[in-house]
Design brief:
Nucleotidyltransferase, domain 5; 6-stranded mixed sheet; about 25% helix; 14 helices; 3 domains; 3-5_Exoribonuclease; globular; alpha/beta; disordered N terminus
């Protein structure tokens, strides 16, 4: 094995661990091409020797085990220069953070700290000074980055971090549910090295000629304090429900067309429906409804035969939008506005901007109300049951769907104090 000290830019084969010089393009032991090694590393191997970041900071944390609101109770920050990694000389600090909203430890048997330590902890903002002069911040995953920013919001502080790299997303070996133990195992770092484990992983990657590139940086997508003032919320919600053509046996050339648009305008301040819109639409591409479609939607052939055109329905709905203040469309799936978008594109109909974004009620349904350990988004029946609103188990007509939809939104606003705002928005595409 070539000694790493004699290599100007060493790289280590991920197959057999043989160390070679930068200019050797194939592993002498197992003949693995160097390009393959660097493709796994998600970087261009010709740039491996270029140092993009000089000072790297790594943030690890432990959170209070509260189901409703997590807070950071232990923060570990490491800081080192990429030119000194061989010397294992880096700054590392561990802070016990005093919780702001939940002073008592939740599930203390799973914590590595005691309640006494938490009571004597330092303020969260006292850790900011350690982040000065860092060119790059690394978190283990996006959830940890979000937890850090949520702590800034809770403490009413401006977040000192604008961009970061999620190590899980750029780690050489990708797999679902990649954990810290997986990273340690792949890099053959002893498992007992759990203290500052993320730092050990990053340093080991750098020793193997891995380079963190600027294209790996992620923008912070969750609200930070200076953006909070821009979140104005909405005055009205459009509870939208679409019905579209369908067949029992899916055909690739079958285009779904909207055959009914139902929209209820919910005034948040008055807590009631102030306007309703319902129209049947005559399909053009598949004018005859299948028996399966009639059974699924409850819409009869004569109803769509007497319906208006898709263009007329969009124009009438858009006219209602003009009369409202700030509003957003609420749906019960991601498919409704996507199908609307596709049909508009096929028929060359321009949609107003308000029909290109929405809030999926199933996605933002509070975790505190959901069935424990369920990974799927809840159905309408499950949401009603969780809120204690399930009354129409066997009656699924259109009127009942509207009542259920309105009841859910009303319950979440009044009982759960849920605020519908821009953070919840999803896009079909951006104009």
């Amino acid at each position: 094995m070539i000694c790493t000290e004699t290599c100007q830019y060493p790289w280590q084969c991920m197959i057999c661990d043989f160390v070679s010089d930068y200019f050797i393009k194939k592993c002498p032991e197992c003949q693995t091409p160097k390009e393959q090694f660097c493709r796994l590393m998600n970087v261009n191997y010709e740039l491996n020797y270029q140092e993009q970041f000089q000072i790297i900071g790594i943030i690890e944390m432990e959170c209070n085990q509260s189901r409703d609101k997590q807070e950071i109770v232990k923060l570990k920050i490491s800081k080192f220069s990429t030119t000194e990694i061989e010397e294992n000389n880096y700054l590392k600090k561990e802070f016990i953070i005093k919780p702001l909203t939940i002073p008592q430890l939740q599930s203390p048997q799973f914590q590595s700290i005691t309640q006494e330590q938490v009571n004597d902890g330092v303020p969260f903002e006292a850790t900011f000074q350690l982040l000065n002069e860092m060119d790059l911040i690394i978190f283990e995953n996006r959830a940890k980055a979000q937890m850090y920013l949520n702590s800034c919001i809770q403490h009413n502080l401006q977040c000192p971090i604008k961009k970061y790299i999620e190590l899980k997303n750029v780690f050489p070996f990708q797999k679902p549910q990649l954990s810290m133990n997986d990273m340690l195992r792949w890099l053959k770092i002893p498992n007992q090295s759990q203290q500052f484990a993320l730092t050990l992983v990053v340093i080991e990657l750098l020793k193997r000629s891995y380079t963190f590139q600027t294209q790996m940086l992620q923008q912070l997508q969750f609200p930070i304090p200076e953006e909070e003032s821009r979140l104005q919320g909405f005055q009205n919600l459009i509870l939208l429900d679409l019905q579209y053509t369908c067949v029992e046996n899916y055909r690739q050339n079958f285009h779904q067309e909207i055959i009914e648009i139902s929209a209820q305008v919910y005034d948040i301040r008055q807590r009631k429906i102030i306007q309703s819109f319902q129209k049947y639409i005559k399909p053009i591409e598949n004018p005859i409804l299948s028996e399966y479609c009639t059974k699924q939607t409850g819409i009869q052939q004569f109803q769509v035969n007497n319906g208006i055109s898709f263009q007329q329905a969009i124009n009438q709905l858009s006219q209602i939008f003009k009369e409202l203040g700030r509003f957003c469309i609420i749906t019960l799936s991601d498919f409704d506005l996507i199908i609307l978008k596709k049909e508009a594109e096929r028929k060359q109909i321009k949609l107003v901007k308000n029909l290109t974004y929405y809030i999926n009620l199933k996605k933002i349904f509070p975790k505190s109300l959901r069935i424990r350990d369920s990974l799927k988004d809840p159905s309408m029946t499950e949401m009603l049951e969780c809120c204690g609103l399930l009354q129409y188990e066997n009656n699924l007509n259109d009127n009942t769907k509207v009542i259920n939809f309105v009841s859910l939104v009303d319950y979440l606003i009044i009982n759960e104090k849920l605020r519908f705002d821009e953070k919840m928005i999803q896009y079909t595409y951006k104009i």
